[in-house]
Design goal:
The complex is a heterodimer of chains A (276) and B (90).
Chain A lengths: L4 H6 L1 H4 L5 H10 L1 E5 L5 H11 L3 E5 L24 H12 L4 E5 L8 H5 L4 E4 L4 H14 L3 E7 L2 E7 L7 H4 L12 H4 L3 H20 L8 E6 L4 E6 L30 H8 L1
Parallel strand pairs in A: 1-2, 1-4, 2-3, 4-5
Antiparallel strand pairs in A: 5-6, 6-7, 7-8
Chain B lengths: L1 E4 L13 E4 L4 H11 L3 H5 L10 E5 L2 E2 L15 E6 L5
Parallel strand pairs in B: 1-5
Antiparallel strand pairs in B: 1-2, 3-4, 3-5
Classes of the chains: A alpha/beta (276), B alpha+beta (90).
């Protein structure tokens, strides 16, 4: 399929890059990416992928836009409060770039629907805000062999890495089990700087575009962490673990099930209040 | 001295400090010293049996201690220890 004149102009700053070119821009236009979560991370991911001219973008999120979201979830505007997040996001994507085919799923990803939804996409990006979802997304990526860009943010810090299932370290190679509830605070409990979501989400979008184009070094087998207060990036080398319960040599997880987060009696937030 | 980097979720114990300098010859010794200076640190990093919790990763100079000698991994002057927990926000 040849570009229209308008597309040639729209994507001219990509096409002029020798690493992209017309050929690469066509790869972007054929790529199918599933964005899970239309929140802090999902907003810049969806907007930059839309601007880049991604062929098909799936967006899954069960929630509606809340006023507390607008401090960081830039795909949603004040007028969208109360609307389903997927509808609000789809509208902005279409406004930005009508070339993009958008598919919305106003539901939570679960063990029953994950593999079926993944089947329609080439790449998955994690923009969710809770551990059961992050583990489920990783497990489903392994079973469907879809590359995944993981991301997480809290307060002033973020982390991300790319997972090529079966080839590079997966989320469970590094974190075999879910932390019990209450051990690691959520953004709702501990706060998050809005612009941090933009930074980590934009890095995730950059990494998926690199995978689509097949250029550069993917962010595999290393975690990139960002420390906002120090303005510092760090890289930690990670390895595929032979003991991984999912992708190791003797896995205990052999089919997709919803990861369960145990409730812990020990609540660090409560404990810290007592400490003070 | 060994530089220990404190991850965000644990900085409330260190009064917000992101790095602390400690003396010690192994990861286990460093964790014990950390817990003396910042009470509560050990129970956040280790389970009841004393093993590193499975959602916490500890690195010496950016190498995972799981691929070395675990808690007995030796540390020497100038080493840098990073603690990387899973974080879920999005």
């Amino acid at each position: 399929m040849a570009f229209t004149e308008e597309q040639l102009v729209r994507y001219s700053r990509h096409i002029i890059l020798s690493e992209v070119g017309g050929k690469g821009q066509k790869k972007i236009g054929k790529a199918r990416v599933l964005v899970i979560g239309a929140g802090g991370l999902g907003s810049p991911i969806a907007l930059y992928l839309a601007a880049a001219g991604i062929g098909k973008m799936g967006i899954i999120d069960a929630d509606t836009v809340d006023l507390t979201n607008l401090q960081r979830q830039i795909v949603h505007h004040t007028k969208d409060v109360g609307r389903p997040k997927v509808d609000s996001a789809a509208e902005k994507i279409k406004d930005l770039n009508p070339d993009v085919e958008v598919v919305t799923y106003q539901k939570y990803l679960d063990a029953e629907n994950a593999l079926e939804i993944y089947a329609d996409y080439d790449y998955v990006i994690d923009g969710t805000d809770n551990f059961p979802a992050k583990f489920l997304i990783n497990d489903a990526a392994f079973f469907s062999k879809k590359p995944l860009i993981h991301g997480g943010i809290l307060r002033f810090d973020g982390q991300l890495f790319t997972i090529i299932p079966g080839e590079s370290a997966c989320y469970r190679c590094i974190f075999p089990e879910l932390p019990p509830q209450g051990i690691v605070p959520s953004c709702q409990e501990a706060g998050v700087l809005g612009a941090l979501a933009g930074l980590i989400g934009t890095l995730q979008a950059t990494e998926v575009i690199k995978l689509i184009l097949g250029i550069g070094n993917p962010l595999t087998n290393r975690i990139l962490t960002y420390h906002g207060l120090e303005t510092l990036f760090r890289e930690i080398k990670i390895k595929k673990s032979p003991d991984c319960p999912l992708c190791g040599s003797n896995p205990s997880i052999t089919e997709l099930t919803m990861p369960v987060q145990e409730v812990c009696d020990f609540n660090p937030l409560e404990a810290e209040k007592k400490d003070q | 001295m060994i530089k220990v980097r404190i991850p965000t979720p644990l900085r409330r114990l260190t009064g917000g400090k992101g790095e602390v300098d400690l003396e010690g010859t192994s990861i286990a010794a460093l964790i014990n010293t950390l817990d003396i200076e910042f009470p509560g640190m050990k129970e956040r990093l280790c389970d009841e049996e004393g093993a590193v919790r499975r959602f916490v990763n500890i690195y010496v100079n950016e190498e995972d201690i799981r691929f070395h000698q675990g808690l007995e991994t030796p540390v020497t002057e100038g080493d840098e220890v990073s603690i990387i927990p899973a974080i879920a926000g999005g």
